[in-house]
Structure formats: structure tokens, C-alpha cells
Amino acid sequence: MSNNQIKSRIKQLRQLIREADHRYYLLSDPEISDKEYDQLLTELKNLEDQYPQLVTKNSPTQRVSSDLVENFPTVKHKVKMLSLDNTYSIEELKGWESKIKRILKREVDLGYLVEPKIDGVSCSLVYEKGVLVLGSTRGNGEMGEDVTANVRTIHSIPLTLRDGYPQSIEVRGEIYMEKTDFQKVNKERVAQNQALFANPRNATSGSLKLLDPAVVSRRKLKCLIHSFGWAKGVSFKTHQDFFDKVNQWGFPVDDRSVHCENLEKVIEYCLKQESERNSFPYEIDGMVIKVNSLNLQKELGVTLKSPRWAVAYKFPAHQVTTKIEGIEFGVGRTGTITPVAILEPVKCGGVVISRATLHNFDEIERLGVKNGDTVLLERAGEVIPKIIKVIISKRKGVERKINIPSRCPACKAKVAKEKESEVSWYCFNIDCPAQLKRSLRHFAHRGAMDIAGFGESLVNELVDRKVVKSIVDIYSLNREDLMKLPLFKEKKVTNIINAIALSKKQSFSRFLYGLGIRHVGEKAASLLAGQYRSIDQLAGIKKEDLEKIPEIGPVMASSIVEFFSASKTKKMLEAFNAAGLNLNQKLPIVKSSKIKAMTFVFTGELKSLSRNQAKELLETLGAKWSSSVSKGTDYLVAGRNPGSKYAKAKEMGVRIVSENDFLKLIGK
Ligand code: IVH
Description:
Bound molecules: 2-(butylsulfanyl)adenosine
Helix content: 25-40%
Mean pLDDT: 90
């Protein structure tokens, strides 16, 4: 092929791909198969690889940039991004119309555009000469964050506009994640032991703030345009006209947006959408009603926060009533007794719910709930359902008071409070099988000793068959013990035996954390390991000494002393020692360091060392780490795919450093 032929083939391929994207993402009416599409894209990629000088920024191959975003610069919106006033009932909606009619001071036919209010993240998109130049978040309405690199990965957002576009334009829309994609993301997070996103909105905003566009592109975000910012070279008569034009230029708009000639029709449509909301592919929390005529919009104007010409009609949270069929009591690792309501299964917000935690007995009292009660259940876009109240009128007189069990449901030991002022009740039996199961899972989990394969089903088998009676028994497990268990074959047994052996090398602070001392979390364990350096030192520790450490309060101090003075603990520690575990802090303490007493927080993945190694290094340098950003944070270390801590640190003015800067700081 001649140079000119190559250039024109590239141009043609780009055009074909853009057309295919448009038909797929906007019209949902593809004309070519996925295979044909992939062939076009591969041909284009190959040509661009051979002729890199012909690559353009807006070629369809360039949606995902390989560069990591350093941070998100702040951008000022040319026209403030407003919010919407909310109404919560048809009455309030009618009140809004009366108010605008009063302002207009004359009888006019008010036509409205009514659209779903998507529960996502607001964004602004600026196009110059038909090319996307800026994608930003709403921020505080005046200033947002430049997230262009991430926005470019969203296929429904055009990188270049179709013919007829104006000289420049800013449109605004909602970036969101479909419910099915949200579930997939959370499923992956469970597998990777990461915290779950509470709802699709959080998943969207978390994704948009990731520093690696390649990861954002895998999150399958989508966008629908809902409003106008500013434009040069075009004007619109109505909101409908705006939608029609932007749609022609290649922007996605919601085809559930309809024109209603009066409020009666608006209400009818809102109620219909409310009844169908569960079948929407995305979460909506209401409808948005906008005056259609832009002249009337101008006349009505805006207040400080929101336009007068638009309003949101918010749906009530997903609520259903169901019956409590029974109460179960869970036993936590440290013996906490948690009441759980077993419910007559009920669908709420598209999922079947059959259990809901009642948290503790104070909550039972606050709700006044009894076993057998009919209750109102709510899922406000959140994953965990909540019992809101008891429907007293449904009581038949047969409902039973929920009593604090006098004995532990698992081991029948007496249940008691640790202190009168505490809300929790505990089983204090350290041999309780339910607690042992939890303790074993805690000891073996990824953040502690990280014994691969030592999950719930293995733990249940080992405890129920009385093969394991204490966490230290993990280290006397042999092949024969494991081969006796159902579904355990040669290979699986070898893997577990190897994982157990490997865990003996885990650090002292992980071991301390794994012991599961009440009130001692990962951070406290790391502090203790840095300060006391061996089990022997900790075993003789006094409460007053512990309380000298600012992060350790009296409750934790008592719990630590109590743990180490128990004869059972002493025996267990001897057995751990005999098994060859790491009962000393191996890392030397560096006497003076420039980061002494400073507090670090980590977000995202580190490349050159694990988080635990980083934390241990900090301990040796006399520095501290914390899991959340606060005023006391000196540095936030941002690795790959940082999470919400990044935005928080930025907001609070905390210094943010890359992994490389961090390594320099600690002298590596
Ligand atoms: S119009 C001047 N239309 O709701 C107001 N907003 O609570 C411009 N939203 O920040 C917004 N769906 O992010 C509009 N169809 C829709 C919407 C919508 C969701 C969001 C938007 C806005 C927030 C206000």
C-alpha cells in the first residue's frame, strides 16, 4: 500500500469503528457482529503500530491511555453546575408548579420534559471543534476535578462529534454503573478481600477517581447527557430541541425522557416509572421534571443552588413489609452475641432478603421489635437491609419478646456484659466452638497469617470433628488429619500443609494481630510489635505502661493485660514457639529518622513492596500508619488504583506522595 492508501484506509477504519460504536452504544442497534468489529479494531491497531506517526489522540484505539494520572487538577466550571430541589410527594410537586406559575404571573401552557433521575455521578464534558477536550466532575458546583483520561474510557461518551456540531459546547450528564456491572465489580472485590461498594453510585465515583485509566475502562461505566452548560455557534429553543440536537451529534440521551404537556401527565408518568424502577438497568432515585421552553427557563431563573425551572420528584427508598419468622444469635470472634432476624423471604429493590441484623439488644429495645412481628424493611440503594420499624397494627398478640439469651447458642456458657455501660453481650468461654471458628478464620485470613485455603468450610470441619481445639492446633495438623475430611484429596492437602508451613514466617505484628486479642486491630498490633518487640516482653506488660502509648486507651490496655496473663494464653504461646513461629520483631529499630512520629496512610496498590512490608518499615523508623485519613495524617501514599482516601486527603490538604517519593522518604 502507498502512503496515501494507508492514510485513507486508517481514516476509513476509524470512521467504520466510530459508526459501529454509535450504533452499539447509542442506538443499541448494531449492524456488524462483535467479531467484525474486533477485526476492524485489530486492523487499525496493526496499522497504527506500523505507522505510529499516524496515530491521533482521538483514534478509537486511544480511549485508554497507558499513562497513570498523577493527580486530578482542579478546573473551574465556566457556568456553575447547579443542583436540584427535591419534592417527596405529588402534593409537593403540585406546590412547585403553583410556585412557578406565580412567578410567571400569567397563564401559560407549561410543557415539561420528564426524565429518570439516575443515581450516578454528575459530569461536565467540553468539546472544541467537535473534539472532547475536558471531562470533569461537578465538585462543589464551581470547581471540579479534571478526570478527562478516565472519562475518555467510557464508550458511550464520544471522543469526536458527528457532523453538524457547534464550534464549542459544554454538555452535562450522569456517569453511572449498571446494576449487573455493579454486582460483578463487588463479586471481584469479595474474591480479592477488598471492601465492597455500598451501591452503584459509590462504585462509579470510586472508579472515576482511580488513577489508572486502564482499570477504569474495565469498570464498564456509562453516561447519559441530561443538561446544557454553554455553547458557541448554536442555540436551542427547548430542552427537547437540545436533546434532539446533541443526540444527532453523537451524545447519548435517555430514551425514557418524555415530553408531557401538563402536570397531570407528568404525575402519571412519574408514578408509572416508580412502579417500574426495579426493571431499570440502572438505579434511579426519582424523576426530574424540567420546563421545556428555554425562554421560560430564562424567565424563571435560578436560585443560589438550583434552577427554579426544574425539580426532582424523589421516590421513597425501597421499602417492603415482611414478617420476622425467628431470631438467631451469632457469636463473633471475641464472643459478641449478635441478634439476627430471620425473615419471611421478600423481594426489595430487586433482591430477595431473608435475614437482617438487629445489631444488638439496645437496637431491639429502640425498635420495640418482637419475634413474629411484621416489620418495615428498607434498602436505600445500600446493600445491607435495615429494619426501620414495627407495624404495630399487624400484631396479633402472639408475638414473643426477644430475650437476651442467658447462654451462648454454640457452647451454652453464660452470656454477660463486659461493662454495664457497653451495649454488647458476650460469651466469655474461650473454648466456645463458635468463637474458635471465628478465631481460626481470623488467624488465617489474608491480613493476618494469610494461610491460603484455610476458609470457612475447612474451619467448620476441623472444629466440628474436634481435630482443632485452639488456633495453635493448626500447626500440628498433619496429612492424615486432612485426608479424612470430605473432598480433600492429595493436591488440596499438600497445598494447605505448604500454606501452613509458609505462614510460620509471617511477621511478629501479623502474628499478634492474628491472635485476635479483643480490641486489638491490625494497627494496634503493629504498634505493639514496634514497641515491645517480643512476646516475652508483652507477656509481662503492665496496664500503666501500655496506657503511655497515646493510641492505646484503658479498655484496650486491660484487654491486652488480661489476654497475656491468662494461663491458657501462656500455654498457647509456648506451643506457638515450639512450632517455630516468629515471636520477635525481627526488624531493627532506627534511632533517628526524619519521619519519626509521623503518620502515614496508604491507598491503592504498591508495586515494589507489600503494604505490610511498608508498614513494618515505618514501625522500624518510629513512624506510624493509620487506615484512614484525618487531620493527624502527615502523608498519604498513593499507589495504583487509589481509593476514596485520595479525594479525602486532597480535600483536607494532606500531602500526597507517590510510591517512589515514599521510598525516598524512608531512605530506600
Ligand atoms: S438536570 C441544574 N437531569 O441529579 C440541574 N440531573 O440532585 C441540572 N441527575 O447534579 C441537572 N439525573 O447529577 C438532571 N435527568 C437528570 C438527572 C440529573 C441525575 C443528577 C445530577 C444533579 C443531581 C441533582
